[in-house]
Amino acid sequence: MTLLVIRHASPSAPHPQLPAQLSGHRVLCSDCASLSEVRQCLCQPQARSADWVLLDVGAADEAQWQAEAGALQAALERLPAQYIELQAPSEPGLEARLRLQHGPAAVVVDQRSQQAGYPLSLAIVGRRLAQEG
Prior knowledge:
By secondary structure, the chain is of the alpha/beta class. The chain has 5 helices and 6 strands, in the order βββααβαβαβα. It starts with a strand and ends with a helix.
């Protein structure tokens, strides 16, 4: 079982402190330079076989959203794994931007920063993985 973190952040943003394992499950991280890369990551076998996905798309600008919204929506709708969205406090979330039929299992917004939401997101996934066995 695997937790996949898909992260789109500015190159200057610090990398989150991620454990190698969470509740006995492997944690993998994919850094993406654009929403197009986020969409590509969501369509890769690694994401299709993950048990959970933690999705952080905080650094996208409006031009990227305009260009990729439809394709990103389709990729999220086809994602077999449950996912948690890390949302920036000042940005609309994926559901508002994409009008998703199947939204995230949880949306984590930390008023301090998007990065500050990682511990809570990991705790939610860890608890769910432990319950699932």
